[in-house]
Amino acid sequence: MTESPTPPNAGGAEALRERALTALLTARERTTLLTDSVDDHELTAQHSPLMSPLVWDLAHIGNQEELWLLRGVAGREAMRPEIDGLYDAFEHPRATRPSLPLLAPAEARSYASEVRGRALDVLESTPLDGGASLVRSGFAFGMIAQHEQQHDETMLITHQLRSGPVALTAPEPPPAVDVPALPTEVLVPGGPFTMGTSTEPWALDNERPAHRRDVPGFCIDTAPVTCGAYRAFIEDGGYGERRWWAPEGWAMVREHELGAPLFWHRDAGQWLRRRFGVTEPVPDDEPVLHVSWYEADAYARWAGRRLPTEAEWEKAARHDPASGRSRRYPWGDEDPTPERANLGQRHLRPAPAGAYPAGRAPCGAGQLIGDVWEWTASDFLPYPGFAPFPYREYSEVFFGPEHKVLRGGSFAVDTVACRGTFRNWDLPVRRQVFAGFRTARDL
After folding, report:
1. Each residue's pLDDT tens digit, 374-431
2. Contact (Cβ atoms closer than 8 angstroms) between residue 347 and residue 367
3. 31 and 345 in contact (C-beta within 8 Å)?
């Protein structure tokens, strides 16, 4: 049982340099779109206590790039050492960040731009085909590109939470294909497979190392659970039946009087939702979005099923029974394309269930990458042999039963920060994230 070999575009210093440059430029283009699409008042406002002001994210992106690429890789003196504490995510909770003496929008833009110019010089002069672990295969540059894209996703969540006029637009995703012919679930046979990675050059520490997992056979949904299917749970009284809910989830429902996913409301007998400033009918064929782990778990119980474990999800997404190895992505080892997955904020919504036939896994399940993050049954825990790199605060401090694992990415995730091995995690109460789910069952 093996995983895919090192990706071909990861070999050779110049290819690595070009890949890193493209990733950094793509991330900054998106950051600019997200911050230039609103005025300074919107940038400095806190649109939800769950989120930072957009201007904090902008300067934090620049500060992390300076810390790791200019100071860490190049060994240069700090440009603005007095702001390090302001943009330390562990020092100041999101709810308190508006009270800090943050850089104003123009100053934040200037700082991030100056850091980027110097970082590109460092990229040009740094050997990437050997040396220290931090720069080997361009890891530090890939890590910073992923970090920026992760904050871009966070800023997109803030855009969804903000009130006011529409600031972002995007074309519609492609339609579903041959939905009536698709089975509702697919079989994943039991047996061992390789989980995680030891060869993906920009994989983060919690994805490592590759290790063998033996997973009993199970069935998993062909596509994520749709709004229409979830509406049936609502209309059957799912939010009023304690038996479907974990105790903490039931307490959350009662305390906050929940009755539907976040951003849904009922008007004149019709379910509507707010999506990036637009109010529209809830589309029955689209994967449900903005549900917590507790809501996903309750739906699965109501449906007589369960959430898949993280290992089950990854086996469904990566295992190729014909070769016995684990692929980088459901469709193979090639990077994502617009024909295979809904990623990169190309669309501002999930595609209908059954879209992207070119992205399906060998087991027949589709949309495992992109569209919606998928809650799993698993706690966020280290793999056997885990070693923190390059700092404990990325993963290690979050390990434990408090956080649940999400897999697969969403339409808001860029390709650089989405792989078959990529692991996300969050508190089971969180609803603002672009999360949905699919269900599974034992054989």
Report:
1. 999 999 999 999 999 999 999 999 999 999 999 999 999 999 999 999 999 999 999 9
2. no
3. no
Query: What is this structure's pTM?
Result: 0.97
**What value, to the nearest 5°, has the Cα angle with vertex 26 and ends 208 and 139?**
30
- Residue 72 near residue 143 (C-beta atoms within 8 A): no
Torsion angle in degrees (nearest 10) through CA of 128, 133, 134, 135: 0
What's the Cα-to-Cα distance from 97 to each of 62, 87, 310, 319, rounded to whole Å?
17, 9, 33, 43
pLDDT given at position 137? 94
61 shares its domain with 37: yes
Same domain, 30 and 143: yes
Last residue of a domain, one of 161, 196, 212: 161
Question: How far is 128 from 130, CA to CA, in rounded Å?
Answer: 6
- Residue 350 contacts residue 286 (beta carbons within 8 Å): yes
Which residue has tokens 């992109």?
370
Q: Which amino acid is at 221?
A: D
Domain count, the chain: 2
Average pLDDT over the chain, rounded to whole?
A: 96
- Specify whether 250 is located in the same domain as 323: yes
Q: Tell me if 275 sits within 8 A of 263, measured CB to CB.
A: yes
